[in-house]
Amino acid sequence: MKDRFLLLLYMLALVLLASLSSIKYLLLFLFLLLLANAISLRGNFRRAIRPPLFALFTAFFISTPYALWTGHYSYALLLTLRVLNLTLLTLLVLRNINLYLAFGFSKTLSQLLVLTSSHILLYRRVFSEFKDSLRSRSPEGPQRRDMINFSGGIGLYFFDRALRDSEEVAKAMKSRGFYID
């Protein structure tokens, strides 16, 4: 029951954060979410700072060209603050609720969650095996060129595998009646 209630609060907070257009309130929420994430991780500074930095890095490369191109700096700042707030809120919620219990009210959502998490675990294991194979092939450490080739090859592999898997899953779900058109 606690997980469902927290999921409902999360969804309401998403709507609230997405509808805010005041930079002052978004900065206030950003401060509160940073504080809540720091308390939630209890001193693991590296884990606390990495996701917001990646979100900020991504928002910088998306928002900055837009702001330079159009001259709407305040809108780019607003968009960046929203992205950071939504990212921090999602990370905080994912650490504190059990999604399987939260989606337990719906059999269909539970099945989709299990399907998604099984794919994530499978892809994580395959990626770990690829990294191990790269390490075993270069005992002195991979060179920059090796890393570029590795990244390109593994990206292509995962893209191709995701396409094939999604076609198979779509066919299996359709045969079980998930798409009623």
Q: Which helices and strands, and how do they pair?
A:
Elements: H1 2-19, H2 23-41, H3 45-70, H4 73-96, H5 99-102, H6 107-137, H7 144-175
Helix pairs in contact: 1-4, 2-4, 3-4, 6-7
What does this entry look like structurally?
By secondary structure, the chain is mostly helical. Helix content is 85%, strand content 0%. It has 7 helices and no strands. Helix 2 packs parallel to helix 4 (73-96). The mean pLDDT is 85.
What are the defining features of this structure?
181 residues; mainly alpha; 7 helices; 85% helix
Number of strands: 0
Tell me the structural class. mainly alpha
Q: Main sheet?
A: none
Average pLDDT reading: 85
Summarize this structure briefly.
The protein is mainly alpha-helical. It has helices at 2-19, 23-41, 45-70, 73-96, 99-102, 107-137, 144-175.
